[in-house]
Amino acid sequence: YFLLPTDGKSREHTLPGTPSSKKKKKKRSIPIPSLAASAAKKTKTAGPHSQAELDDLSTDTLLDMMDKAVKAGLWERRHQIIGTAIAIRAVRSAAEAPEMQREVLKGPGVPRSDI
Fold it and tell me: Which residues lie closer than 8 Å to 81 by C-beta, 6 or more apart?
């Protein structure tokens, strides 16, 4: 508070070339979309959309879905989710493998490259 002037008067700042705010402004009407336009939504593509639906699919199906996306040059949020589901299954499979169990018992951890 010690830096504020005690005798200063406030004034309105304007940029050169812009109209003053004291002038009356025209009111613009905002177009309201019709019900038909708002009701027409983008249709979703077929396929699983949630993590639970992806968990129910086989690993081969997930790999096929990812392969098709890569070949088509697509990479959307759903493909990220599919990739995550595949990676989780790979890590779980590696954790259940007897070779990895032996590696865990040998040392403090298992390198990512081994998994």
Answer: 51, 54
